[in-house]
Design a protein that fits this description.
This protein is α+β, with helices and mostly antiparallel strands. It folds into two domains: 4-35 and 54-127; 143-446, Bira Bifunctional Protein, Domain 2 (BirA Bifunctional Protein, domain 2), CATH 3.30.930.10. It is 40% helix and 19% strand. It has helices at residues 4-7, 13-19, 30-35, 37-45, 54-85, 91-127, 164-170, 176-182, 193-211, 225-231, 256-260, 315-335, 382-387, 412-422, and strands at residues 147-152, 174-175, 189-190, 215-217, 222-224, 249-251, 266-269, 275-284, 303-313, 340-344, 356-364, 369-378, 389-392, 400-401, 403-411, 430-431, 445-446. The strands form five sheets. It has an eight-stranded mixed β-sheet with strand order 1-10-11-12-15-9-8-4. Strands 7-13-14 form a three-stranded mixed β-sheet. A two-stranded antiparallel ribbon has the order 2-3. It is elongated, with a radius of gyration of 27 Å. 38% of the residues are buried. It binds one RNA strand through residues 1-2, 4-5, 11, 13, 16, 19-24, 64, 67-68, 70-72, 74-75, 77-78, 80-87, 94, 97-102, 105, 267, 396, 399.
Amino acid sequence: MRLHCLVIPSYSRDYLYVIGLRKVQSMLDIKLIREKTELVEKSLARRNGGFSVKPLLICDEEFRQVQIEWEELNRRTNEISEHFKKGKLEPSEAEALKEETKKLKVRRQEIESLRQDLEKKLFELQLGLPNLPDQAVPDGADEKANKEIKRWGNLPKLQNPMHHYEIGSQLKIFDFERGVKISESRFTVLLDKGAKIERALMNFMLDFHSKRGYLEVFPPILVNRDCMVGTGQLPKFEGDFYKCADDALYLIPTAEVPVTNLYREEVLAEEQLPILHCAYTPCFRREAGSAGKDTRGYIRQHQFNKVELVRFTTPEKAAAEHEQLTLDAEGILEALELPYRRILLCSGDLGFAAQKCYDLEVWFPAQNQYREISSCSVFGDFQARRANLKYKPADGGKARYMITMNGSALAIGRTMAAILENYQQADGSVLIPKALQPYLNGMTALKPEL
RNA sequence: GGAGAGGUGUCGGAGUGGUCUAACGUGCAGUCCUGGAAAGACUGUCUGCGCCAAAAGCGCAGCGAGGGUUCGAAUCCCUCCCUCUCCGCCA
């Protein structure tokens, strides 16, 4: 990887689409925006983010005007070249045509830079628009308007429950201080049984999903910029991710990024769908804007482990598959017998790329509240447009965009924290959930050293 | 990191300045042939965008990417990326 990759930011393929006159990927369908402007505006307004397609439409109009002239210049140039092809022109005629082409070329160069600027701007405006919320998503400005869908499990009856980090420190399975020493804040060292539980959870979750038909993948953890744009992290949230200084690569914030991009720029057959993947990866997030939040403990780390579910499907099946994917994530919580609830996010709390999203929240006794442990989102064709994920319909029609969806199942660090809190005993020990015991050589409890 | 060879449509693979969206083969779809199938024959078969209410139609762009030479570039020149082989280095 050469340094110039970084020096020229426009080197990325996303911008080459513009500069190289290759197809421009629409994030929201540009035709939909033109034809159903009011509808799109209304839908975007539900997000309460101040989004509007107006600047995009103005730019689109300008761009098309320029594009029309540009195409006409090319057409005439091609026409002149036809005359030469057919051969034997009078010298004076040939000269005149050469002159004309030179003039056309000058004009084209003028218009070319304008065209490129407009196309790039158009592209950026498109990339900056979030997905449209699904009909089923309730209106609301923030998390207060989220809707609880269901609750599962009985809350443990505990007197003065300890926080997971207190329990973990006491059991000597977390070493927060040394994590900070060898890295910085929000990095933690797991010791002994802590490391083993983390590993057991990964294996348990992957086995669980594999049995349900998810094909396991273990992808690269460093990905190129195209992937980050493809799933919607970039260009809008540049500051949220770790980027390599000497290579144009990013540390993934979630397995969603490499796994969703597995089929980027491909056209699959409808018979191959749905595709179900599960993947364990470490995840890296800068947590910019989270200063002061969850500073203690193991639930908000710059590096954490997660098992992710990803599905690729058709528009017809998407809604049902999203429900199933959410049930699959819940299956882990139920197998581990952790009390949780399912929340339907309101329009204002919805992630940038999401069309509809369920959050799963697990009970934390010491905090006396439910906390997010999974997010199960369906993206419609939003990611598919960005990443160019298509399938050929079985009836032989034109290639269509796939529907993508994904969900954590689950965030492993938070699962460990939830186990510590929910399974804590009065004597300071922690019971191991039955489902996990086979993954820990039959260990049934963590006991404090005497 | 060094040397060499490459990058063309579903795939294989031609093409070294115009007749090239691109031979030929293959795959796929349809029609014919057949009792049915195979073989064979014929036809069709890329994507994105624009003009258009839409269809049809027309146009523009695309041979790894960007730039250059030229009236005209898959083809010539420059830069970069990627793949393969050998060497070096390394888990």
